[in-house]
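Q: What would this complex look like in 3D?
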Amino acid sequence: MLNLFYAAHTCALASHIALEDAGASYTTTRISFSGNDQRKPDYLAINPKGRVPALVTDRGVLTETPAMLAFIAQSFPRARLAPFDDAFAFAQVQAFNSYLCSTVHVSHAHRMRGYRWVDAGNAEAIAAMQRQVPQSVYEGFALIEQGMLAGPWVMGETYTICDPYLFTLAQWLEADGVDIARLPRVIDHRRRMGERPAVQRALAAELARAG
Amino acid sequence: MLNLFYAAHTCALASHIALEDAGASYTTTRISFSGNDQRKPDYLAINPKGRVPALVTDRGVLTETPAMLAFIAQSFPRARLAPFDDAFAFAQVQAFNSYLCSTVHVSHAHRMRGYRWVDAGNAEAIAAMQRQVPQSVYEGFALIEQGMLAGPWVMGETYTICDPYLFTLAQWLEADGVDIARLPRVIDHRRRMGERPAVQRALAAELARAG
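A: Here is my prediction, written as structure tokens for the whole assembly.
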């Protein structure tokens, strides 16, 4: 049995949606960032990085969204969530998801997690990072808008593990101060994703426990 | 035929080593960061992100180190550089490489590329980022030191695409101001990697053209 550790409003949503897409049997465990659960010994024993998501499997714990998404796709091949039989096509999927984690998510993280990269007491530097977020997040999404979203899904006609991950990060655009009118294709993708039952189930499950 | 676009002293080295490990037929094209080649139209036509590495294949261009490493491993299966037939083991490989790109490399990038996350004219904020690099890069490697490097290779007895990537980022520890005496296992791995002929060939090729 798989168990997904997540926190509300985090990138864990991507794996949550993929588990729904895959038709997986799984459970979830919600941890609270406001309660700082991710730094408590019980959770650090599961994920020493002190972050979400983490996926507990029969063979051990997996972390890092691109790896977890690929694992879900490979473990549930009938759902056809990634082209494992085609090295180039699979690399394109991985490249997209790697870009999301190493560039787009990182730009976003400078709004709330600036203390990772400057002294936590340096309020001016942290504020300077926050001021740049609308521009840096926009630039990350602009490359997607202009050339990385084939349509209707990220990889074209076939829905893959890129789609729930893009949808998840696109949830944060307004809070990051990005003018979504400049990203019509990303926003259309987000809207269509929001209509999928798997996405609605994952979101409903997270919201039901968020109180 | 594969062609690797790289710049000296960058994470492109990881893919360069993996191509050597794989016994691939490939060419390389060096671009100069000091000449700002990565922002010129010729290169942006290859990689709109304006970064290295990029791998030109018969089917198109691949970017993002974790994806390129997986592509090289899958394209040259005799080299056994990744366990594609085992979803959990492959996800562990991908999780390690994803951590390197989204956490370890990102911390390092705050030394030279702070303008990505604050206004480029804000010298104080950029200096504040630079001051934090020794600590943030150390913390990223400390998790590897303490629990992610099974030994003798990252994944244990079997050499994988995690090893050239870790080696590549470990090249930068001294310049990032990290006390390497605190990372004996990472440094031992780096030393043993440096003894491998494939690594020596990739390094020699990059140095021969670096002048």
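A: To summarize the key features: The longest helix of chain A spans residues 87-112. Chain A touches chain B through 49 residues (CB under 8 Å).
Q: Very helpful, thank you.
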